[in-house]
Amino acid sequence: MPELPEVQAVAERLRAAAPWARITGFGRFRSTTMTGGRHAVGRRIEAVDRRGKNLILRLSGGWFARVHLKMTGDLRVLPDARLRPQTVRAWFALDDGRAVVLDDPRALGRISLHPEQEEQELFRHLGPEPLGPEFTAAALLASARRTARPAKLWLMDQATVAGLGNIYAAEALFEARIDPRRPAAQLSRQRIERLHSAILRVLNSALASVRAAYERPGAFTEGEFYPVAVYGREGRPCPRCGAAVRRIPQGGRSTYYCPKCQK
DNA sequence: AGTCACCTGATT
DNA sequence: AATCAGGTGACT
């Protein structure tokens, strides 16, 4: 599921479940799924934030839970902790009977508990929030000049900008008409400006789609909730020029792009 | 800078 | 049986 827009929607949906009761216990699928769970017991959730693709559950008494959904995770509230699907890999039981659960068929998602002083260190490797004030074309240009990597791999690096993944990196490059294989350091200032605004457009429009889908149960399982131009569309016509969309391996995963209009 | 391990399930 | 999957950190 989750790149930045999906993680943001998860955060917003969780916020709607406030006010929170106290955490009375926790459970986990394996010891690696959640670490430090005991530090959450007796505390209350005070806020839900997002940093890149991470969720932060701020707890009373100066602690927080960092949740990473990885490939297939979802974090939500169930009305009854005892009625949890098999794919729930970790949960916090609340004293009103509800539970906050990490539902993750693939079991790659992780939760860890930390004192608030550790937050800076924990997220030190993350670049600017793309929808925040620090993400400017100038900052993106400076980052591009410091790397030898192809544009797509550079964009997916969480140190470049926090929250883009395989889908939205490909979509932003399509939108900006940039070949994903082109070394980032070669991109002109004008192209970087185009890319910067493409990232904002793609993420904002995905966010609108994801929010709409969340208000309609089942929308995610129906497949297309975001109108992708190239991702997963190998061989289908480019919506801009009609040429066949191509799929190439980059960094061990698939990149989709239009060979005719991305230069 | 590139590859692999972590996991499970869907698809070919 | 093999390959692929919206992620990332730990290895060569």
Q: How would you describe what is shown here?
A:
The chain has 2 domains: 4-122, MutM-like, N-terminal (N-terminal domain of MutM-like DNA repair proteins); 137-257, Helicase, Ruva Protein, domain 3. Helices cover 25% and strands 23% of the residues. It contains 6 helices and 11 strands. It has helices at residues 4-15, 119-122, 137-145, 151-156, 166-175, 189-214, and strands spanning 23-28, 34-35, 45-51, 54-59, 63-68, 74-78, 88-94, 99-103, 110-115, 246-250, 253-257. A 5-stranded mixed beta sheet has the order 2-9-5-4-3, with helices on one face. Strands 1-7-8-6 form a 4-stranded antiparallel beta sheet. The longest helix is centred in the C-terminal third of the chain and has 26 residues, at 189-214. The chain is elongated and about 60 Å long. The two termini are 29 Å apart. The mean pLDDT is 94. The chain binds a DNA duplex (12 and 12 nucleotides) through residues 1-3, 6, 32, 53, 68-72, 87, 104-109, 148-149, 153, 156, 158, 165-168, 231-232, 251-254.
Summary?
The chain has 263 residues and is of the alpha+beta class. The chain has helices at 4-15, 119-122, 137-145, 151-156, 166-175, 189-214; strands at 23-28, 34-35, 45-51, 54-59, 63-68, 74-78, 88-94, 99-103, 110-115, 246-250, 253-257. The strands form three sheets. A five-stranded mixed sheet has the order 2-9-5-4-3, covered by helices on one side. Strands 1-7-8-6 form a four-stranded antiparallel sheet.
